[in-house]
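--- STAGE predict ---
source: upstream dedup step, 1 unique chain passed
mode: sequence only
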Amino acid sequence: MEQLTLLNGKEIPVLGYGTWQNVDPSECVDGVVNALKAGYRHIDTAQMYGNETLVGEGIRKSGVPREEIFLTTKIDNVNHAYEDTLKSVDESLRALGTDYLDLMLIHWPVVSGHEEDWRESNIQTWRALEDAHEAGKIRSIGLSNFKVEHLENLLPHCRVKPVINQLRLHPGVLQAETVALSREAGMAIQAWSPLSPISQMKEDAQVLKMTEKYNKSIAQLLLRYGIEKNYIPLTKSVHAARITENAQIFDFSLEAEDLAYLDTWHWDGDIFL
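--- STAGE serialize ---
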């Protein structure tokens, strides 16, 4: 799979397998196994998902060497602040059954209990990630769902620069200002829920024409859109055939007119970011 070089020189596969809501033991373990079998080498989980142990089991069951896998997890909202973050890093390592993480993110910038002091809370949480990084427990550190005001608060205090900002991104949800500032700071952009528009797009004649034109599914078009926007899309499924299909996006490119249509496409769904 193609790789993207991060700010710190580490490489990350440009397509990731996400595990949000995968808490059924067999589905989660088998999903990770099937993803790795299909060629994915980038697995994304989070403390909040409650499935780190299952993800780790899937990695071991797959037989793929740990060093070939880019493994990401994220700090749960209840673990903000320096000491809680440090403790949770060790807990994630134990749960995943690994002695290092390729990437760890602050999952959300404003969390319950820190609505008023989120600025200092993020700085202290980041300080803990920096220390864990310098101790060799985490190879890269980054952010998730950080918008402009959150970035402007944190970035001046970073001695280790964040390499990623993971955001909800897909046609209709572009977050252009946040993406621009993140990139200006040197961060790569990951896209979560990139397949959200599928249901709505099933009723879109122009999109349906694209599926015929490229002989690709709507999901494949959306993932390819993310690749061409220079995002790192994270796709999730528990079905082996769909996991494989979603990885088959490197044998075509969207023409300029189709990319432009998706850039201006209107999203009627939720606006949860």
